[in-house]
Amino acid sequence: MPKLxxxxxxxxxxxxxxxxxxxxxxxxxxxxxxxxxxxxxxFLPGPHVYQAVREWxxxxxxxxxxxxxxxxxxxxxxxxxxxxxxxxxxxxxxxVAVGAKHILYNLAEALLDEGDEIAFPTPYWTSYLDIAEIxxxxxxxxxxxxxxxxxLTPAQxxxxxxxxxxxxxxxxxxxxxxxxxxxxxxxxxADVLVKHPDTWVINxxxxxxxxxDGVGYHNFVHFRPELxxxxxxxxxxxxxxGMPGWRVGLMAGPKAVADAVVVLNSNHITxxxxxxxxxxxxxxxxxxxxxxxxxxxxxxRRDIVVDILNGIPxxxxxxxQGAFYAFPDISCAxxxxxxxxxxxxxxxxxxxxxxxxxxxxxxxxxxxxxRGLRISYSCKPEELEPGMNRIRDFFSELT
Length: 399
Known about the structure:
The chain has 13 helices and 14 strands. It is an alpha/beta fold and 399 residues long. It has two domains: 6-44 and 290-396, Aspartate Aminotransferase, domain 1 (Alpha-Beta Complex), CATH 3.90.1150; 49-285, Type I PLP-dependent aspartate aminotransferase-like (Major domain) (Aspartate Aminotransferase, domain 2, 3-Layer(aba) Sandwich). The strands form four sheets. A seven-stranded mixed beta sheet has the order 2-8-7-6-5-3-4, sandwiched between helices. Strand 5 (167-171), helix 7 and strand 6 (200-204) form a beta-alpha-beta unit. Helix 6 runs parallel beside helix 7. It is globular.
């Protein structure tokens, strides 16, 4: 049998999806499973989104769409960006893809040659490392432990950029930690970025409208507009609007970068389905009551999750201010036993939690921080407190 391409030896399935699949399998077998594993919003978009799709179906031409994305969607995206204080962009600066993950893959393919360096903070979203390794890039991890609230410092960034990585990839609000950088923190990092003109900056900010406590969304170009010529903004419909299955990701940045993504689209996918574009345009340009209500609801859930976690002796959880994740330091469990099982690491914690309590979480090592685990509190509302109480009981039973 002929061999697979060498790059496939570097490709790994998503750790998050593997755990979510295991939880689904156990549930199908009759186990009482509460899953905190996958970041599915568990709500649907407003009725105006479905109405727009119904109306479009009556005039569907059945033809190919645009490699860049249709004008109604891109106009709606640009209007949405203006609401975030990101103006001065045109359609020529934009491109769409099959979700933000596809945008990130296209950007990596467009900007990285094999052996180039990409830098990003740890904890990181799992796909960052996977994409880089598939493409043969070198990865520079910037450790941001719980002791510094999982946030990158200007000094760390300055040191990392001194080696002139091709890309600096930044995620705010953060998946997996839920941490949000303040206005002053973003301004300080922006001051560092302008000192290093050889590096592209990718802002993966798909949770930009899911921020709590009045912190607000802040972007590097708000403080240093000159970064616009090498900054790429990535957004998605999945989390904010409850539309993960529609698979719509968007980017805005320098025209040359957008054009490169369009070229890749023309070879990879041709276009995203027009029905998804119609739904996305309606979500972005229509009433925003659903995402606003859900943001407030997730803030309330955050309070429940963090209060329970920080009430467990030895567990510490920096307080997230966005997205729908908590990332506690659970290293207090290492070296202890749950029943007959010795807990040696984060994977053991998650395995024991699943087997003993029927709770699915993702080990922190999947995100580059093996002292933690990720809890996605976007589950069904009625499962939240029972699931968190099971976690609390698990830790109380350690000996």
